[in-house]
Design goal:
Elements: H1 18-23, H2 38-45, E1 75-83, E2 94-98, E3 124-128, E4 134-140, E5 145-147, E6 153-155, E7 158-164, E8 171-177, H3 188-191, E9 204-205, E10 216-219, E11 222-223
Parallel strand pairs: 1-10, 1-11
Antiparallel strand pairs: 1-4, 2-3, 2-7, 5-6, 7-8, 9-10
Amino acid sequence: MSPIDLSQHPPFIYPDYKSSVSRGPLQSPIDLVGLTNQRESGERSGSLVNRFSVGKLDHDLIRNGQQGGLPLGERMVVSGCVVNQWGKPEAGVLVEAWQANASGRYAHRVDQHDAPIDPNFLGVGRCVTDRDGNYRFYTIKPGAYPWKNHPNAWRPQHIHFSLIGETIADRLVTQMYFPGDPLLEYDPIFSAVPANARERLISNFDLGITEADFALGYRFDIVLAGINATPVENDLDEGGHN
């Protein structure tokens, strides 16, 4: 992965996103390339190629958490291509996804939102991009949920993504949103992203990805670096997710 152009991403501290004020870093990022300790540099940049292993159902959030039934909600296929700043597909990238269930609740003890827990939905999955840089998940459309950033605050429907490339230092964490969501304009996490880059976080409905009589399809391509990079996620909310 290439160096990240920070001008394309949200600031570490964004006052409307209240928890970022106390948790955002005040020091400049450390340039790993400039580390003088070669051993430490080597540990951080050692190759991870062919070290990722995923299970048969890891990419299928509809089935990987079943406890005797199917999860509730609108079934979806989320697919896309991971490319570098020159548009070249990135093979062998570990793509991890996590999300709330259809009621807007995470399967995590920290989440105390008064919404049903779906016993058949874990809300986590992972896969590795193929030789053409493609990834694919089967899942349930997540619900919106309240959070305590400001009065009557609700997070838009979204899915979190984490990508790890050739080295442990090559990690990108971001969020995917849905087209036409009325909550986007009220969300400080989305608004913290520079205006010219926000559309890169919104997926597109894609009939070509949709599977007949089963699930609607959404495309979300991810660019790892450069002027068209997918904006990164810089902070977490009080619940350990955002």
